[in-house]
Amino acid sequence: MNFLLCLDPQSLTDSQRLHRVPVFQKISASLIQAGHKVTIYGTDKIKEDFLSSALQVQYVIASPKFDDFKLQADLNNALLYVNQASIEIEDLTINDLHTNGVEPDIVISTAPTSIYRKIWPNKLFLHYELGIFNRHPFPIYHQFDPGGYHHKSVLSKYPTFNLPINQQALVQLNTKADEWLVNLGIGKDKVGHWNVVYVPIPSYENWTVKSEISYKNRLDYLRSFALANPNKKIVCNEKPQHPLTLQERHEISELTNVQLLENKDSNGIGNLLAIYCKTTYTFSPSLALQTLFWGNELISHPDTSMSTWATSPNAREHLAGYFSTFNIQDFSEIDSRIETWHEFNPYQ
User: Contact at 8 Å (CB) between 299 and 293?
Assistant: First the structure.
């Protein structure tokens, strides 16, 4: 098979590149060893990194114009995500890949896959993240989202993968949770002890807010939940990279059942709130699955990617099975998973 590994040229920062390239080198080595062909799409810096590994891969170098966009925009701004990308960014990506005649069977991407799906609407997409627990204070935990990082992805649409609950996997998940609580200095009795709903405020113009649930802005997302649940106590926090404006703070203060918690440092407090709060309302795959990991209640908008997990019976048990069966740590087993992932490809 032909694999295309996309290290997203429009939003990948230098820091992210240093973390992701070694992982993509491992993925490439595993695929090459299994007899597959690998093409890398990214900037010229990505090519330099891969050349040092002596892997037999082909390269599609992204247009240098992407660097110009990075000078003009906040790299963490979700406006750069593909559903909100400018026509010029979209055209650059499509032109890069069409000009080089790339025809993959499977695409592995570091970003949402809407642009790539415009080129190959029926291909299998595997979204790669550093992990569900990749932010401070958690260690790196690799995760794949077979299908493509939104509400039609395999991870979102088929949380059970038709697999029976694996009690051994659940024991392993509980052991991991206990270990991390010790490392964090948090007692087990503190998990879910705060009887409030945690609603994280999304980043500016978030891709999911506008494309999946069709709210005008990030405060509409918070406001609609707060007004629909007037008897619930709600806490929210801003992302450190996307601070609230004075007007936004004023609007939040007018919601009588909502309390804004300030971030104490640049790492944010979202991961800790997902532990302490009894309930979390979110569409974020990372935060949603963390909530289930700790055994707390997950609520999600019905049109977003995590709604299936939020309404699934025994969701935490199925999460344990997903980790043990479909989460790949050393990437040596990717080849053996392709057939199963293809079976659940919602775009076929």
Answer: no
**Where residue 242 sits, what CATH number does that domain have?**
3.40.50
Tell me whether residue 348 is in a domain: no
Between CA 130 and CA 145 the distance in angstroms is: 11
Q: List the structure tokens of 215.
A: 């709210």
pTM for this entry: 0.79
- Is the pLDDT assigned to residue 329 strictly greater than 70? no
Instruction: State the Cα–Cα distance between residues 137 and 15, nearest whole angstrom.
Output: 17
* 3 within 8 A of 128, measured Cβ to Cβ: no
| Matching residue, tokens 């929210």 | 236
pLDDT digits (tens, 9 = 90+) for 216-268: 778 888 999 999 999 999 999 887 777 888 999 999 999 999 999 987 766 66
- Domain containing 303 equals 167-326
Q: How many domains does the chain contain in total? A: 2
pLDDT score of 199 more than 80: yes
Task: Residue 135: name the closest of 265, 46, 235 by CA.
Answer: 265
- Chain centroid offset of residue 41 CA: 20
Phi, psi of 153 (to 5 degrees): -70, 160
Q: What kind and span of H or E run contains 4?
A: strand 2-6
131 secondary structure, DSSP code: B
Tokens of 35: 């007899």
HSE-up of residue 217 (Cα within 13 Å, Cβ side): 6
- Mean pLDDT, the chain, as a whole number? 81
8 A C-beta contact, residue 40 and residue 343: no
